[in-house]
Amino acid sequence: MNDEERYEAVAGCKWVDEVVQGVPYTMDPEYLAWVMDKYQIDYIVHGDDPCFTADGKDVYELPKRQGRFRSVKRTEGVSTTDLVGRMLMKTKEHHSRGPEALSPSIGRRASDCSEIEQPIQSSFLTTTRRITQFSENKAPKPSDKVVYVDGAFDLFHAGHIRFLKKARALGDFLIVGLHSDAEVNKYRGDNLPIANLHERTLGVLSCRHVDEVIIGAPWEVTQDMIKTLNIQVVATGTHWQNEPDSPADAHPTYAVPRELGMLTVIPSDSKLSTRNIVDRILRNRGMFE
Prior knowledge:
Layout: H1 3-11, H2 29-38, E1 44-47, H3 61-65, E2 69-72, H4 80-89, H5 128-134, E3 146-151, H6 158-168, E4 173-178, H7 181-188, H8 197-205, E5 212-215, H9 223-229, E6 231-237, H10 255-259, E7 263-266, H11 274-283
Parallel strand pairs: 1-2, 3-4, 3-6, 4-5, 6-7
């Protein structure tokens, strides 16, 4: 993703208070002194994986010498490199294995990549403790207007965040339904989703506009679901309509909320999509080989 897309994505994270743009990879003494004074920074924090410059120097040597560096344990099994590998290798080994068998690829990009089927299994382990760390652990109040949206939210990005911000503004409590890997693959084809259900769950839970997530949400929004969750608004975007491999009958998924007069369509004003991100990687795959 480009600078602006990354800035917007980080700003949408619920643990972020402010985004400082254009920070150099290696900070010289003058810049370090300026940025720490300007933003009243106490510590510079990074994961426990090492970072070195091209000539082998520790990127964080200066703040470490000043006693103003802290490290946090890196999350095992999650990396940009792993996600890029899944796109390039076009495998489905990272998908969560549910009772439904994965469908054959019906996507439009099958000819764009060689059909390499080397297994790349996700090593990301989802635990209840980890989900609790990401969850707000709160329920809607009786007076809250509950909004529901659903989708894949694969490779969670700035376009998703814009949509969720608009959906949250329609009420007081936003529930996001995430479809299973098999369901997403059935309609999107290829080896989508790139991130599996558990990875997508934590990505969406990290968004400041989201209050609750349904893990493995049903494809159709039913009357029983609306009643059980006390949903007053069901919202959907328009981005899926621009995807050539979207099924013509996808929208009837919202037949019940449409009949009840609670369906709101939110125009998608971002050109960024999961397919767009994958296409960028595939066009530049030579850089990763």
